[in-house]
């Protein structure tokens, strides 16, 4: 500091020596006396001003080239309509199921439109389904500056509208959800609304639990994709086989699921007729309901797998215990009979393979209504079930558990559950006895069932053997489901459909509950056909063993290798 | 028209002494303002139920009037500028006091005086006048001690700030106080005083925050504890993002039809959306050029009062544009401040024309005996001579 001052003094003196030979020049009026502090102050002020200008430039550039979603998030209310950017949906192997695409949306500015009749007329040539009167009304209000004409059109349509050269008709790029698989897994995926917000299925789950970002223009999401448990290959095989079944057996509908019995992961789930996620209105059609989750059905004999598992686990019977099933079972004002009554007493194994209603009823009665109900409760069949694709239709359960309801429930009547909920309960029986929660999300932790124990591992093994026996025994009902090498086990079901005042005898739901490989069960399949017709191949039969069983066999033959199950051709007939 | 150097007429002298770059920059700013007004204001006018070109016509009228005013004032001598400032200040202060009694209240503040069909904002006119007067007082204070200029200056400052706060107009108070504070520093007055001023200023800001609910709410909005959405400020920020580097294109903007102040305080956001960040930086460049040019002229001005007046006028011009742009891009909490020559508004336009006219008048080249005598740069060799090592011839 002191040095500076000296320096200034010397400089000043030098200046005067040069200019006036030591004579001090008179200070001009108003001339600042203190030079150095002034210079420093000036430098500081210039510096601050320069920095301020630079800060403004920097902020301008940051705003202009910065990520727009950040700004969009900071200001939740938009200039024009907000839409939402969504993460992609991929299958368990990362293959794309749903993504956002940039799509042009057409809007009009009534303040700029010159001739609204011309605009509406010409737009109608490109968009024939345009609501002309509504658009005319909207365009007549000159104070509005923004009227949507059509959102999310194809680039070709946008080009044709552009080529009309209508003043006041412009475009805005928005996000539009696209499903590369078309109708594949449409029920599970759900759909989005015009603002790209999830309304149903996995799409709604993404809105509620994963998160979507509001955007003002076509800004793609940078969130990681949502990885589902579904496997596109398995899903395609299931849908293809169900399509085939629709052609062969002419049912009203068909549904199927492939489940990992240890993790509860749903590898494929389908309900025919399918829905296209890009046409949400289809879901309003009753015929297109998701039969896997959206409806409850009396499933019939497949329920016997549960009844038998309970009886074995409780130690009431052993597989070779003999039951007298020759006489019908009295149940109140009903009499329970078998479709093909046996003329001799059957072992428990035979009750299962012959699918004896009387036998199942006797087993349930041995346990008693309380115990049977508790077992179904613990298996998760009596409480509402929630999945990522939405709520499963609530089970319809007998209000009072007495002799009648216990007998009917033992073979799957008088109790209606969603097929997915039943499949999850059935998985428990083959996975070592632990309950599983069905999920549409990929699980990355080790594939072991960690739910509450329902039955013992030994009972679970016995059940797998029974299921296998039902497929390989010469009078087993599930013989048509066998696939060489993959040790398929299964149980058939043919349920009469309840209608007003009773059951119709000519409409059934036929189904097949499959598990493979039965020496170490990994996967469960459940295939259902709704009101199949008897055909020549089945000799007019509509039972699960004649239609759902062969569909399951073909399905397993296609997907077992994809699922990593190795064939063992030397144990075809173990 | 070709003028001879020998021509001693007023016009000829003016044309040779005026800072032409500064003049061209200021006039082009006025022209840019007219063009941008035509882009931004029709949307606002239509929304308010006025004819589409209502604001454009007014803008052109005031721009023309302002340009004439600017050129006329630029003919003034420094003493003339000070006389003009004194007169203008007295009139404006009278107006500001009158506003207290008869002014219309707009947005919760009494700032406007109705004269015929036009409303006038006296405080805008007081601004340049105050700067010139306070520059003169600080200049006197720094160069002679036989006059109590400093106490006068501080008293005037307090008086003017008090009038502004009474309106209340916190933004203008901050603007003129920062300018006056910087002038105090630039005058080379005692540093102790500068520290004191900072304390008084901070105290004043705190009081404003405590006693003016709108200041508090804007401050809270800006610092995020109150919601920003749907506010003009929030949407302005967004428009820069929408515009990107090159803008959506002239006329393609949407923000102008949403913001009620799109033609005044938020015109910068309209420019950002329609013409892009590069155009904004270019406009900023014009403001920066005018400031730097004036500052450089000031550096060579030997008379302290004139130097401080140029610096003060340039500062108030630069700070006002910086505050307006800073608000638009979300760096500062919202306050009612126009973008010089670009924003619509008659009072602001005329007052800024007076500011620019004074700036041009003071920065004109004048014969200076000191400059003729002294070399512009003291060569380093002088120091060598002091040390007694006279070079041999």
From TrEMBL, chain A:
GO terms for biological process: cell division; cell wall organization. It is found in: Membrane. Residues 256-555 form the Penicillin-binding protein transpeptidase domain. Residues 86-195 form the Penicillin-binding protein dimerisation domain. It comes from the Bacteria. Keywords: Carboxypeptidase, Cell cycle, Cell division, Hydrolase, Membrane, Protease, Transmembrane, Transmembrane helix. The chain crosses the membrane at residues 43-66. It holds the Pfam family PBP_dimer. GO terms for molecular function: carboxypeptidase activity; penicillin binding. InterPro entries: Beta-lactam/transpept, Beta-lactam/transpept-like, PBP_dimer, PBP_dimer_sf, PCN-bd_Tpept. The keyword Transmembrane applies. One of its GO terms (cellular component) is plasma membrane. This is Cell division protein FtsI (Penicillin-binding protein 3). It comes from Hyphomicrobium facile.
TrEMBL record, chain B:
It holds the Pfam family FTSW_RODA_SPOVE. Its EC number is 2.4.99.28. It is a multi-pass membrane protein. Keywords: Cell cycle, Cell division, Cell shape, Glycosyltransferase, Membrane, Peptidoglycan synthesis, Transferase, Transmembrane, Transmembrane helix. GO terms for molecular function: lipid-linked peptidoglycan transporter activity; peptidoglycan glycosyltransferase activity. The keyword Chloroplast does not apply. One of its GO terms (biological process) is cell division. It catalyses: [GlcNAc-(1->4)-Mur2Ac(oyl-L-Ala-gamma-D-Glu-L-Lys-D-Ala-D-Ala)](n)-di-trans,octa-cis-undecaprenyl diphosphate + beta-D-GlcNAc-(1->4)-Mur2Ac(oyl-L-Ala-gamma-D-Glu-L-Lys-D-Ala-D-Ala)-di-trans,octa-cis-undecaprenyl diphosphate = [GlcNAc-(1->4)-Mur2Ac(oyl-L-Ala-gamma-D-Glu-L-Lys-D-Ala-D-Ala)](n+1)-di-trans,octa-cis-undecaprenyl diphosphate + di-trans,octa-cis-undecaprenyl diphosphate + H(+). The keyword Transmembrane helix applies. The chain crosses the membrane at residues 21-40, 60-77, 84-103, 149-170, 182-209, 275-296, 308-327, 339-362. It is an enzyme of class 2 (transferase). Belongs to the SEDS family. FtsW subfamily. This is Probable peptidoglycan glycosyltransferase FtsW. It comes from Hyphomicrobium facile.
